[in-house]
Each structure stands twice: as C-alpha cells, then as structure tokens.
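MODEL INPUT / OUTPUT PAIR
PAIR INDEX: 1
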Amino acid sequence: MAADLSQIVKAYDVRGVVPDQWDEALAELFGAAFVRVTSATAVVTGHDMRPSSPGLSAAFARGAAGQGADVTEIGLCSTDQLYYASGALDLPGAMFTASHNPARYNGIKLCRAGAAPVGQDTGLADIRALAEEWSDTGAPRPAAATGTVTRRDTLDDYAAHLRSLVDLTGIRPLKVVVDAGNGMGGHTVPTVLAGLPLTVVPMYFELDGTFPNHEANPLDPANLVDLQKRVREEGADLGLAFDGDADRCFVVDERGEPVSPSAVTALVAARELARNGGTGTVIHNLITSWSVPEVVRENGGTPERTRVGHSFIKAEMARTGAIFGGEHSAHYYFRDFWNADTGMLAALHVLAALGEQQGTLSALVDQYDRYAGSGEINSTVDDQAARLAAIRAAYEGREGVTLDDLDGLTVSAADWWFNVRPSNTEPLLRLNAEARDQATMIRVRDEALALIRQ
C-alpha cells in the first residue's frame, strides 16, 4: 500500500476503494494507531453488510488488541447502533461502512468514548500519520499483553434505548412502507418497530452490500421512486427510506411525496422541546428552512444556526447543551443519544406524531413546511472563488439585502434567501434557495444559477 493516505483519510472518516486504496493489512494498522492516539484500553467495533466489512473490522480488532486494548465486537449493526454501544459502554468505537457509496467502497467512522466524533483536528490526522509511518517501516511494536476480543449483541438494548426516548403508547394503527435499500435498516427496523401497532411493508430488507435494487442514498430522488410507488399502491400512511448504514432516514407522506428534512427537523424539534418542558436550544444548519427557527421559537426554544456538517453540529450541541439538532441532509442529532445522529429516533418521532392524531402526514407536515425551497443544486465550475466573488459583487450594496460568510456565501432579503457553498472535495458550488412563494424562489434560484454558471 502507498504510504500517502491522503486520498482515503477524509475530514471526518476513512473512505476508499477496497482493495485498490486500502485493505485488511492497512485496517490492522488503523486499529493499532487508533489505540495509540486515543490511549484506549478498550474499544468497540461494528460493521455493515458490505462484502469487505467483516474482514476489515476483524483486522482492525487485531491491530487494536495487539496494542493491548480489549475489543468488543458487536458485529452487524447500523452506524447509530455503534454510537449507542460507544455511549452505553463508554468506549471509543469504530464503525466499518461507506454509508451510501457504491459496493466497492468501504470506510471507518471513528469516535471516542460517548460517541464523541474523531476528525482531522481531533485525532484522525495523528492516526493517519502513524498508519503511514508503519506502512513504510513495518508493524508497530506489540504491547506487553495482547488485548482480548469478545462478541456482544447490542441490537435489543439499542432498540430499547430508542423506544425509551419516544412515547409510542398512544399511537393508532399505521401502515408504513420501509425501504432499507439492502442496507442495515433491514437489520435494525424489525427489532426497533417490534410490538408497535404498525403494519410494516418491507422493501429490500435483505442485507446485500452490492445494492442490487438501487443505491442506498435516499438524498438522490431517483432512489426514492420505488418507495413512493409502493406507498401509493399500498395506501400506506407513510414511507421511510434509510441509507446504507441506516443513520439517515427520509420520509414520504401518504401521497408518495417526499417530506422535507427541514419539516422533519421542525416537527422533531417541537416534540423534543415539549419533552424538555418547553425550553432548550435546537441546532440547525444554515441551509435548513426558515421554518425551523420559527417553530423552535414558537415552542419556547432557542434556535442556533451553524455551518453544514456533522462535526460543526456536534461541536455546537456540546457547547450549548442543545437538546436536538437537524440538517437538510436528514441527519438528526439528539442530546439523549450522546449528541450523535440517529435517523431511527427521528423516524420514531414521526410515527408518534402521526399516530397521536387522526389526520394524514401531509396535513400534519403542512404546519412545519411553510416556504418554497429549491433543494440543493450542484454546478461544476472552473474557479469556485471567482464565482463566489461574482455573486458577492452582484448583490453587495443592494437595498434590503444582507450577506454573510458563515459557510460559503448567504444572501438574504425580507422574503427570500440563498446560500452558495463550495464543495471541499470536488469543483462544485452547491446552491440552496428559499422564498415565501414559489414564483419568487424560482426567480431567485435562476438569478443565482446564472451567476454561478456564466
């Protein structure tokens, strides 16, 4: 393997093609480096259903045990199930998954005890440096005593913890279609939803890391088409779609229409605030809908705006003691889940909110979905900085318009806003626009796109 690991060690995780970019030998070095950097005496590991995952996870465990750490392997799990284990067992953790990436990819999401994230600035750069060094010089010196490797099943405990955080006792019978995308939702959903008054219609629950039916990335509308069709055919009350490692959940209403993750964020925020006596801070990134801070304030809470990305959300959750956080990408973070993200808990909140009343999901969501949004539109550009400068020049000094630079460039007026953010990994600019009505949103969106693409 090449000693330069910059292509696979990303800002927040390890991710690359197996075996071309990394393999079990390198996974073993990552395990050893993780223990060295975190000074862990014990770690917990889990993995998804990809063909390469069990071998990579076992190799990581060997490397960690070789440095003296006792390893608890929880085996097949969702990413939020690994976070549960890290929190409940108070151990650093390693989850082997490439989330929604194609089958040939795999990766590692690392956390410290209590599911605290590990990124470039919090240990990942040091782990990479050690793995690179050992790739050149040979395996690290083993510890005086090798750690143990034991197996532990946490699925029932994970499900019980989630169920303890949402009151589902009074819900009416519901019919729900669940598309697991051949990912880990097929493993966790049956246990989490067991015993509830639900008729669950399963789609693609078979664990298959080659993703034979569609990519396990519900953020792409093409991957929701099967679920939308099935919801309408079944006359279901709603549909749920999970990504490959089942940490994100997307919701479809009874008409088969996608529910905006901003609306889900607002709905869950209102419920979490009620659960906490009508007070608390709620984190939202700067491209969630205006609806989110409005609903938070209406329910007695304090909204806190932050940059896009789980490391920023989790840092703000910890700094402010926030009870909940949500992103436009359908990541939902809960204080009572160690500030970690769990789409499954957000799904339980949606089921509870719908089941506590007699109306449809579309009617329920209307109160949380108040504006016209563009969704995220990506444009390939030759020079990100030059395009952003051109947008700034076009709007700077306009009456009633404000600009801010929290994350990319946000341009706001009384009845509309848009944000343009550069991708960190590709020559792209990402546009999100919102307005009080559809016609204004289209005008603002198209004006911004013209400047981006000129």
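PAIR INDEX: 2
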Amino acid sequence: MNDGRDLLTTAQAAARLGVKPETVYAYVSRGMLTSTRLPGVRGSMFDVDEVESLAGRDTARRTDIGAVERIRTRTTLLDHDTLYYRGRDAVELSSRTFESIAQFIWTGDLDDDVQFTADPVVVQRCQGAIALMAPDCRSIDRIRIAVDIAATYRPMRFDIGAKSVIVEAGHLLATIGASLGASSTEQSVAKLIWDGLQSETSDSRGLVILQAGLNLMADHGLAASTLAVRVAASTRAHLYSVLSAGLGCIDGPLHGSAAEPAYRFLMAAREDPIAALAQQLRSGTRVPGFGHVIYTDRDPRAEELLRLLRDPALGADPAVIAASDVVIEEMSDRFDTFPNSDFALATFTCAYGLRPDAPEAIFAIARIVGWTAHALEEYDEEPLRFRVPGIYTGIRPVS
C-alpha cells in the first residue's frame, strides 16, 4: 500500500496462523486483528506485522530456532488462478522483452530499452568447455558449466549489494544464452537462446513464443528451487553460487525436468492422439502435463502459450497443435483437468522441432530471473536464519 504496509489476503493470513478463514474473521470480531478493504480487491486484507504478532503468541518456541515459514516476498503473487509479478498480471507483461521483465522483477521499473551484454571472451571460454562435454549432454548441464565458468571471470561477484547483483545477473543471462551455441553475442537474450535450441527446420517466428515462455516462467513463488536459493543467499553466498543451488534442485524429474514426459507423449501423439492417449491410460500411468498443485481451474502460463501456438501467423506445426488440442479436449471432458506449463512447453518444443530438452533449458534460464529477485530479498534479511530443528531417529547413545 502507499502507506508502506504489507498486506495479506484472508487465505494467506489463515495459512500463516494455521487456522481456517472463518477463525481469522473471529479474530477480527474479538479485536485481535484489523481487516482492511481495498478498492477493486475482493475480500479482506490484513497487515503482515499484525498477523505475525498474533502468530508469535503460539509459535514463539518454533521461531526461535527456524524461520522457514516466515519468508516474505514482494516478487510474485499466485491468487485466484492468476500469476502476478510485483502486482502486475504476468500474462499481460509476457509480450515484452525478456530483459525488460527481468529488470521489472528485480527493481520494479518497467523499461523496454533494457539490454544485457556478454563478454565475447567469456562466452568463448564457456563454449570451449561445453565442447569438451559428452555430445549428448543436456542443456541443463551446459547451463551449469556456463554459470561456473562465468563466475571465475567476475572478480566482483562477491559484492552482494543490489546494484552489483543486478548487473551480474544481466551479464550472466546473456552469457548463458550465447554459450548455448550462438554465433554472435550482439543479440537479445531470447534470440541467443533460440539459436542454441532450434534445429535447421525451426521456423524463426517461434521466437515470439519463446520470449513469452521465458517471461511466464521467470518466477512462481517459493518452489523447491527458490527455497534452496533463499537458503544459499542467507549464508551470503555470491549470486553465482546461489543460482547453482537452484539449478541443482531443478535437475530432478519432479521440478525442472517435469516437461520431458509430456514431450515424449506428444511426439507419440502427433499422428494419432486418441491412440496415444488410450495407450497411456492402458498403461496405468497418468497423462503428463495436466493439473497443478496450486492452480484450481487453469494454468495462466499454459493458457497464454497455447493461445500463441494456435496463431497460424506464428508458424507452429499445425499437426502438433491439432493433436495437442485433441488431448486437451479429451482430458478436460473425461477428467475435468487442464494443461499446465509443462504441457505447453512440450507442445512448443514439438511444434517447432526444438531440442528435446528445450523445456528444461527455457525453465532454468527463465527462473534465474526469479532466483535473482529472491536472492536480493534474502540478502536484506538476517543472515543464517534458516535453522530447522531435526528429529533424531537413530540409535540413542549409551549413558
């Protein structure tokens, strides 16, 4: 708010207090909390400090030894199946350049003239190291190598002040993009990434959708990788090490690699989507790329990417889009579910003949933006604040 207060929705206040929303309103009636109404916002809002004060009455012992449940962020809000960056609808922002969205998420300033540059020498060193890797290594492996090598060429990386961190993050995004195989560093980050992921037959009009995908994947609240980033930042590790913590987390099949099964399924479904769907159901395994643990009725990121993919002017393979739509319709009718961002990125990859691991690479590079924003926030918190008590279950020592 303009008066400087941070506010929580009723659902957020209830989650923080560990009670039902009805109990929150009971606290209001008893004078224990103050509700606030904002024009154009549905429901009551509650002051963060007031909620924290009330929570502290029952959780004082816990908060002395662990603060995991008290992570505050101004970066991303997930509310009513809508994704917001700093209070702005992410879908409405997604047509802007990746650089401008990164700068907005980091600073709150929306500027379309932002550019990130890479040092050609560093890019050459990264590409040289990548050339020594296994020919069939994944893009995520190449990205990790690029991060580690780039760090060694940045002697001021240990400056974790906001201005320095933002500069480093911009340089790194351009360096990673160019390291994936671009012949020139004088391009936008999205174009650098496109050059590294496309095949000889890819329609360059897909760059529009790639840019939207990068923007929509930039942050998504406190996912596992983002929590790892916050923990690393709390130790005052420099940005490159902090980002490495996030990259380690998304390498798992349940996070950054979740789109791979959806890609394999769609490749099989291109010719006969009904047969592929029937085979998937017959095998007893779920159809990948549908439903979400946070969204209830739709994933706004997938909705926007699929809308762009259906635009004939952008050159996506119509056979892939047709198969994708059949699968979506069948899954909606039969199971009342919806496609998520993994399905949308997999469809994008199939429709433009990109590298099979393109969804994972897009997710990783995009999420560097959000991780940087969370690192900036964590650097302003008390250091080493994440000390979660463990419960020993091993053999007790003999007295």
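PAIR 2 NOTE: The two ends are 58 Å apart (CA to CA).
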